[in-house]
Amino acid sequence: MKKAAALALMVATSWAHAEKIGDVDTAFKLVGPDHKIVVDAYDDPKVRGVTCYVSRAKTGGLKGLVGLAEDKAEASIACRAVGPVSFEGPLPKKEEVFSEGLSPLFKKLRIVRMVDKARNTLVYLTYADKLIDGSPQNSVTAVPVDRATPIPVK
Length: 154
Description:
Order of helices and strands: HEEEHEEEEE
Strand content: over 45%
Number of helices: 2
Structural class: mainly beta
Largest sheet: 4 strands, antiparallel
Shape: elongated
Radius of gyration: 17 Å
């Protein structure tokens, strides 16, 4: 039982956490907050020195105020080396590094890291999915890593 609890804690703490950078209003709403585009920063939990910036729509109005709004499945991503890049250990070829709910029940924004070993590059993809029908809208960015620092792959 202790091992299961420790594993659950380790998985929960390995997820990236969003840091709000800012937002801009896109449409005035008489009741509740305005519709916005928000920009959040996500530090890759297994790659020190890489941060992803994601912009996405945030629905306002009365539904947004009470938490019942479903945000659009549109996002843009730009990941950058913000310091020396190092790795906590070998990375899987593909791994989800962050997900966040966009609706009260079924829609999630996801960020997936893929390793392009041949080019020593980290590729990050953002997209939204639903339980029944996901969205093909996506955005991709890449962070080349200096060849002197090979990306360790599992």
